[in-house]
Fold this sequence. Notes:
Layout: E1 21-26, E2 34-39, E3 56-58, E4 75-80, E5 84-91, E6 98-101, E7 105-112, E8 115-119, E9 124-126, E10 130-134, E11 139-144, E12 148-155, E13 195-201, E14 204-210, E15 227-230, E16 250-254, E17 257-262, E18 265-266, E19 280-282, E20 287-294, E21 308-311, E22 316-317, H1 321-327, E23 332-333, E24 336-342, E25 347-348, H2 350-354
Parallel strand pairs: 1-19, 6-13
Antiparallel strand pairs: 1-2, 3-21, 4-5, 4-25, 5-12, 6-11, 7-10, 7-12, 8-9, 8-11, 10-15, 13-14, 16-17, 17-24, 18-23, 19-22, 20-21, 20-24
Amino acid sequence: MQFRKGLTTTQAHVDVPAGLYEEEYARQGFFGRTSHLYRSQAPVGWTDIEGDLRPECLRIEHMAGLAQSDFWEGRVAFLQNDDVVISLSRLDKPMPYYFRNADADEVFFVHKGSGELETDFGPLAYEVGDYLVIPRGTVYRFTPAELTSLLVVESFGEVSIPDRGMLGRHALFDVDVIKTPTPDPARYAGLKGEWKLRIKRTGRFTTVTYPFNPINTVGWKGDLTVWQLNVRDIRPVMSERYHLPPSAHTTWLLKNAIICSFLPRSLENGDPGAMKVPFYHSNIDFDEVLFYHAGDFFSRAGIEPGMVTFHAQGIHHGPHPKAVEAAKDKTFTEEQAVMIDTKNPLHLTEAGRSVAMADYWKSWM
């Protein structure tokens, strides 16, 4: 059932009447029932915000504790809820122990650095731009070749690949580009000594000591394993004449959350009336987190790699005014960013709050 009242445009995001601002008001992250509101003033034209819903921009690389070399102690959470914990971790030397997360699947995004990830299934060499998806219960160990900075999403539900629907199963990326580990038993054969395995369960730690290396797999088969996917192998969906919703760029499905990848792509150049920047919208069913990895972030002014923006449910957001003007003559975007949308509200940790930019909410004014 569709209704239409007052002054509108026929096609969403195209030929918005002069002097008006289009807002997308939608359920289920742009997939459910939707209306478009045409306003005489932008919904982000506020002069003051008091309370928890104030938009935040975090300089997460400035959080205290990141300089520590210990894998867990050097991981600092900045946003969390009952479904996910979002952290930044730095490693500058090999982990002195193996690790098993018995609480959650983990998605690591390599923001900086390179090295090797040892796992129960075999080793993988990692580099900048890699997603590393480690299922709950997997034994692993990072051995950085250089200082490594990792965006970490702990998911208390299984991580999976989204259904591409009418686009077909090879859209965005063919599953053949996902790398999986191959066991290398020769590298551990004949090793003597003790090895520590640190296990996290319900947030508490148990250390198990072995007289042999716990990575002693000689073979494996099945469909549950570690995944490695580099962003250069993701081929974004594009439309020449219509601005696609962020969910069109979904890379991973989590329990009550999704992870999307915004990557270099052509803009909407096929119709001069088509929007090029993200439309204004009120987060109704999802909190939105955006980690800026690299490139030119055309929808945000004053953003640098390594920053995070957080827009909570219940308050509007959309492009910055300077970004709208700058996008008019652009035909391509070079941005690389990771978006995490959560169905349940996220909460800033003290570490996250400590690196929040006080005046970010004023950037639309």
